[in-house]
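Residues pack. One example:


***
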Amino acid sequence: MSKVGLLLISHSYQLVTGLRELLHQVQPDVSIAISGGSDGGIGTNAFDIKEAIESIYTEEGIVILFDLGSALINAELALELLDKAQVEIRLADAPLVEGGFAAVVEAGIGGSLQEVLEAAEGAKQLQKITR
């Protein structure tokens, strides 16, 4: 059975490479694509993001997590460039690391696209330190 895939977008290639490695250790059966950096430097690229989406797209869908504002802009542009049949894609309003962790766990147990999205976005409520 296919699982919901994840796309991690960051202005830093190294950041998403490390995060993908971490998430693969948690759930090796979940497809995770990355798009990070632009032209060897800091930034994001809509065409790179589009290719990353296409590399893991299945009918189960993809949840996209991103780091900073212009990553969202380029993700939205990439979605406009896609084949209109690729509709099962959601942008998560979630922290990249904690949201990615929650999403990969949910995807790994066979969660639906909506459940994976909610798991990622639920990470916004995570309290790391109780004082």
